[in-house]
Each structure stands twice: as C-alpha cells, then as structure tokens.
Amino acid sequence: MSTEGHNPFHHAQALVDHACEALGIQDAMRELLRWPMREYEARLPVMMDDGRVQVFQAYRVQYNNARGPTKGGLRWHVNETIDTVRALACWMTWKTAVVDLPLGGGKGGITCNPRALSPGEAQRMSRAYIQAFAPEFAADRDVPAPDVHTTPQHMAWMMDEFERIRARSEPGVITGKPLPLGGSRGRSDATSWGGMYVIREADRALGLRLQQGRYVIQGFGNVGGGLASILHKAGCKVIAVGAEDGAILNENGLDIPRVLDHYQHNAQHVAGYADAQRISNDDLLTLPCDVLIPAAIEHVITRNNADKIQARMICELANGPTTPDADRILADRGIPVVPDILANAGGVTVSYFEQVQNAYNYYWSLDQVHQALDRRMTESFAAVLELSKERNVTLREAAYLLAVSRVADACRLRGWVSSPAGQEMFAAPS
User: Fold this and answer.
1) Of the residues 107, 177, 233, 237, which is catalytic?
2) Which residue ranges of the chain lie beneath pLDDT 70?
3) Strand stretches in 7-93, DSSP E
C-alpha cells in the first residue's frame, strides 16, 4: 500500500511504526513514541507598522523528553501547520538520540509570511511568541533555536524578552544566539559542517571518490549555501543550486562565492546569475551527479521523481525531504541515502555545545567546536553504518532503529511503560 501523501506528520509516524515493528516494541510504547507528549497553540496579536493589529497562529510541540529537555527550532512559514510542527518535533527527537545528545525533541512555528515583515514587526512577533510560551521554556525544560526564516537576531529578541519576564539572566534558554549574547562559535554553519563530515565518512565507507565528484544542492539558504561554500573551498565541483525562484546549472562548476554574492544582493534569488543556465527545481533534482543534497523543505523527493534521480548518493540536509514511497524506490535502485536525522544533526549538536558553554560561562574556540562536532558526527555515522550492515537495512532504517531504541529505553527505565515481568520490551541493537 502506498504511504505517499502531503502530511509530513503521517510520514514521520510511518517511520516510527516501521522502526517499532523491527524492534518488536509493544503497542503501549509504540503509541507513546508516535505522538507528541505535549503541544501548545496560541494566537499572537502583533502591532504592525501601519498601526493595525494582526493576529498570527503560533505553535510549540514538546515531542518527547525522556532523554532530556526538549530542543528544537522556531520556523516562520506562510504554510506552517500543527502537523508540520509535530513532524519536525518528532524528527528532532530521533535526531538528538541518533547523535546521542542528552536532549529530547521539540519544535515551534508561526504561520506568517516572514518576507513581508519589517524589522520592527519581526521583533514584535519574536517578543509576542515568548510572551505566549514563556512558562514552557527553560534550559532544563524546553529550548528554542533558529529554523527556517529565523536568525540569531530573532533569538536575541526572544532571549531579551524571556529575561525581562524572568528578571534574571538565563542565556541557556535559547540557542543560536549572536556571539555577544552567549552564542557559540561555529553555530551559524554547524548544519553545513555536519553534512560535510557525514559526506566525508560516507565517501570513506562506500568508496565513492566524492572529492572528484559533482554536487547538486536544492535549497540555497543558510544550510545549503553554507555547504556549497564549504564544498567549493574543499575543491569540490558544485554544478547546480536551487532557491525558491528556481535553479541554475553550470556543468563546469559554479563559482560559489559569486553565486552567494548574487543571491544575497538579489532578494535571495539565483535568477539572473550570468554564468549559468536557468533550470527548474524539478529538473535540478534529477540531474546526473554524484551527490544530491536536498537542503530546503520536506517532501521534494517523491514516488513521482524517485525513479528519475541520477545521483550516486543523497545526503539529506532538509528535514523529511524524501517520502517513504520514494525511499523504497531509491533503496531498490541501490542509491544510498544519508538520512536527515543523521546528516543534518550538526545544528542541534552545536546548539547543545552552546547550552554547555552557557551553563559554565566559558566559551570554546572555533577549532574546539569543529573538533567536537567532527568527533560526534563521525562516531554517529559509524554506529549507524555498523547497524546497517548488521541488520542488512538502509542507513535510514539503521538510524531509526538506533534512535527509537534509545528513546524507548529511556522511557522504559523511567517506568512510563512497563514490560511484563521477566520480559524484555524490545531487542535493542548492539
């Protein structure tokens, strides 16, 4: 039966169900793991620059905190829904578990058009969000961070509002902050560097000779643009990139610094860049290449285009870019996929490092951050690859087996769901 659909939370639940089935997890535990533990909604009245008050829908989902405080970004998007936020919080739960951080998963969102907001309106929106959800936030409870269309500046406004409400300094309550306010070096491009480290490890493990390869990146924001820059500096050939307005292609390799400059000075559009051919984002996804990197939004690789993918490997820097039906097609075709919950975990990993630095008020050098991130991503990829080989499953299946078993074990040890006397609840991977 097809599981294709447009609801990202149904996609997320299908992945949990599959892992629970493979692990032999009982029904009560499965039900606990496939739904958020808590979710909140609020209406935010925000004064606009013209004096009108506009009301925006806002969400915060705390998916599971068995392994530690919930952690997850705040997304501003015109199509934001509770199911999108649920899915992202679900994926964050497995992401923190697969890289073995002492955190749970959470996520937030506001339904708005961020490009239509002035700086003043964006600041009032940020403060309104904190006013609505402040009782749920704390370094030892739930910690927001940037996500799509939110930045360190938004986090600065949010932290300031939170500290005004609490009347004390609590920098660890929000991560992704600017450096002068307790942010961590290396946080802005942490997801990109994490992706680079897992591409390197996949290259070593699978023998793909990716240094000489051709890279295609769908999504040219902070994550995709950051990875494009890292790859370019490493001597790799990025032949195509895509943004919201379309994509550009140069078979000989794009001059990424020039493309980034064009993108930043043209309303975050790649159209009009001179030294490239304009193509659609649909065509970009099916270009012949060595590594395809979806780095934008969910559900871009589907059953409708998976059989046309010509990449030798896919590295998911977006959350949920590949639907379950597409995943099966890619597996049948022998195209390895480094899954999102592993590949894009660099951001939450350095956010965790930021929390650690905030807690003891001592800050690391950029080299220390990169070394710690490299070690964490390398060890996590090795654990997923080993389990993939042991169980003869895909990298995604192995990542979910590892992550779901860790969260289920924490739930069991807390006594939230008990096993029958003398019986193990599931067969945890070695």
Assistant:
1) 107
2) 1-5, 419-430
3) 38-47, 53-64, 70-77
**pTM to 2 decimals?**
0.92
**For 190-338, CATH number?**
3.40.50.720
Is domain 37-171 in CATH 1.10.150.20, yes or no?
A: no
pLDDT attached to residue 267? 78
* Residue 47, beta-bridge partner list: 53
The CA distances from residue 379 to 120, 148, 336, in Å, are 43, 27, 19
The whole-angstrom separation of Cα 254 and Cα 261 is 12
Dump pLDDT digits (tens) for 97-148.
999 999 999 999 999 999 999 999 999 999 999 999 999 999 999 999 999 8
Nearest to 16 by CA among 87, 78, 69: 87
Q: Give the amino acid at 6.
A: H
Q: Which helix (H) or strand (E) holds 291?
A: strand 289-294
Question: Comparing C-alpha atoms, which of 178, 174, 185, 155 is closest to residue 372?
Answer: 185
Helices 8-23 and 324-332, interaxial angle, to 10°?
Answer: 60
Q: Specify the 3-state DSSP secondary structure of 333.
A: coil
Q: Do domains 37-171 and 190-338 have the same CATH topology?
A: yes
From CA 352, how far away is CA 161, in angstroms rounded? 22
Sorted by where each begins, the domain ranges of the chain are 37-171, 190-338
Which residues pair with residue 301 across a beta bridge?
A: 322
In angstroms, what is the C-alpha Rg of the chain?
21
Kindly write down the DSSP assignment for every residue of 232-282, as one continuous string: HHTT-EEEEEEETTEEEE-TT---HHHHHHHHHTTTT--TT-SSSEEE-HH
Instruction: Let me know if 71 is a catalytic residue.
Output: no
